[in-house]
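For anyone still unconvinced, we reproduce a single protein record, the chain in one-letter code, the fold tokenised, and leave readers to judge:
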Amino acid sequence: MNEARKNRDQARTLLLSTILSDVQNREIELKHPLSDDETAEVLRRGVKRRRESIELYDQGARPELAARERAEVAMLEAFLPAAVPPDEIRAAVREAVAAGASDIGKVMAAVMPRFKGRADGKLVNAIVREELAG
């Protein structure tokens, strides 16, 4: 945050101050200092919120606002742990199916805890659907 302020990067300063505020609000909600996992969850919510905004801006033909939101997503993702590659998710889904999970709910229940916070639920769901269909 201080680096963004020194570089007079208003967009980054605003984004970081918003996220810090979200973190502080979550601490107040939970009544304890956040762990790294809880802080990452706050960041993921911010990313998810911005991705939803991108979809709406694209539908509303507002490319300049969508581009700003994409830049914010990129900035926030720099603070998150690396995402799991789709091949690793696909292997876990195949293991769950081989273990007897036969519907989407059971496979998701078996796979999601393994990748909690490191994989997007939509991506996992899409892979599960592909594997169950094929």
Remarks:
- The chain has seven helices and no strands.
- The domain at 2-77 is CATH 1.10.1510.10 (Hypothetical Protein Yqey; Chain: A; domain1).
- The chain has two domains: 2-77, 86-133.
